[in-house]
Specification:
Blueprint: H1 12-15, H2 33-45, E1 53-59, H3 64-76, E2 80-86, H4 110-117, E3 121-124, H5 136-141, E4 145-149, H6 154-159, H7 166-179, E5 182-186, E6 192-196, E7 201-205, E8 215-218, E9 222-226, E10 232-238, E11 243-244, E12 249-250, E13 255-260, E14 263-268, H8 272-283, E15 292-298, H9 319-323, E16 328-332, E17 346-350, E18 354-357, E19 360-364, E20 367-368
Parallel strand pairs: 1-2, 1-3, 3-4, 4-8
Antiparallel strand pairs: 5-6, 5-18, 6-10, 7-9, 9-15, 10-13, 11-12, 13-14, 15-16, 16-17, 18-19, 19-20
Helix pairs in contact: 2-3
């Protein structure tokens, strides 16, 4: 008798348990009960109730495990989830589109706008997110509220589930922004930037929302504003250890941006970081890619500046670094308040900065000050 031993090679990606490549190969993408629990808690914080129609908006390149977790969590709560899924759009430019917050998946399609706007809540699971999408204002005017679930590995989402106590502190920071006329940002590296705030639109994110017509993202923890036209000028110096989240990379060499009347007019630096910045922003061929999008600071004490090395780039979208407490966040790209839209975008969280609103310091040397701390 001959016994034949057969070896089966299982494609883990098909089963949804693909091990992440890179620095943390232990991570698996599968359904975990603890992750359903985390999603259910956040939806509960968003006041989702039994019977509520909730749209799950995704694209063909969305992270499947997060789409499934959203559905299962909503069903657990007795809501009535339904899926709106669209093909990920074709590339419109010769460079990769990353970290925009301005997904172009809707493409102006009215049936999608109606479906999302007609829901009690829509869960945004697009790759880039709808924060700056041109269709978002129309959707929110219909009375829906939106939650962008960042394109992170669910381990990061679980770890950064919203803290209810963060809401009041973020609201306090927003009130300070609304009451100020000028923001000034300085740093030991040489940053000296001023932003006129009189006509800015102020926002804040704590990771969940209950109010119709509002939009938030998970992870959360930010106070920010979208400056009006011709309000932002000065020098921004990114030091080693600051992050360029479009590249998902810590800087190793200084980069100095000269900003005049909202626009980056000069990028100085001798290292690779400056060269990459110049090359990528120029590739858009769009002056608006050089303009200020939003400015603000991180509020989340649970978010970590040093988390990037623990994830493969595929499993890390970087909202944690946007939100870690005491960072100054400068972003280029789309700004509806100033009437600018572009898919070119940089999110640049920086450490060790001092942020002053008129005569009150809210961040000192990268540390949140009372009453925000």
């Amino acid at each position: 008798m001959k016994i034949h031993i057969m070896t089966f090679h299982v494609n883990q990606a098909v089963l949804g348990t693909r091990p992440a490549e890179g620095s943390d190969a232990m991570l698996q993408e599968r359904i975990e009960g603890k992750w359903i629990d985390a999603f259910a808690r956040v939806f509960t914080q968003c006041d989702v109730k039994a019977g509520d129609p909730v749209a799950i908006f995704s694209e063909t390149q969305s992270r499947p495990v997060n789409v499934h977790l959203a559905e299962l969590a909503l069903l657990r709560l007795g809501a009535r989830p339904f899926h709106v899924v669209v093909p990920s759009p074709a590339q419109s430019i010769a460079v990769p589109i990353r970290s925009t917050g301005a997904t172009n998946t809707i493409g102006g399609l009215k049936p999608i706008v109606q479906a999302l706007g007609g829901s009690v809540l829509f869960a945004d699971l697009t790759v880039e997110g709808m924060m700056h999408a041109p269709e978002l204002p129309e959707i929110l005017k219909m009375g829906a509220r939106g939650l962008y679930i960042s394109n992170e590995h669910p381990e990061a989402l679980e770890r950064l589930a919203p803290d209810p106590a963060l809401e009041e502190r973020v609201k306090a920071g927003m009130k300070m922004l609304r009451g100020a006329k000028q923001m000034r940002v300085t740093s030991p590296a040489g940053t000296d930037l001023t932003v006129a705030l009189e006509k800015a639109v102020v926002g804040g994110v704590w990771g969940f929302t209950k109010r119709p017509g509002t939009f938030t993202h998970w992870p959360g923890g930010l106070c920010l504003c979208f400056p009006a036209r011709n309000t932002t000028s000065g020098r921004l110096v990114m030091a080693p250890g600051d992050a360029n989240l479009t590249f998902k990379r810590y800087l190793e060499t200084p980069v100095t941006l000269t900003i005049e009347h909202d626009y980056v007019t000069k990028v100085d630096g001798d290292g690779l970081d400056a060269e990459l910045f110049r090359s990528y922003i120029a590739a858009w061929g769009d002056r608006e890619a050089y303009a200020v999008s939003h400015v603000g600071w991180g509020m989340n004490p649970g978010a970590r500046w040093d988390s990037l090395p623990f994830y493969d780039k595929r499993d890390f979208n970087g909202i944690e670094l946007r939100a870690f407490a005491g960072n100054f966040l400068y972003s280029t790209g789309a700004n509806e308040v100033a009437g600018r839209h572009t898919l070119g975008h940089f999110d640049l969280p920086m450490r060790n900065c001092t942020v002053t609103l008129d005569n009150q310091t809210v961040v000192k040397g990268g540390v949140l000050q009372a009453p925000l701390a």
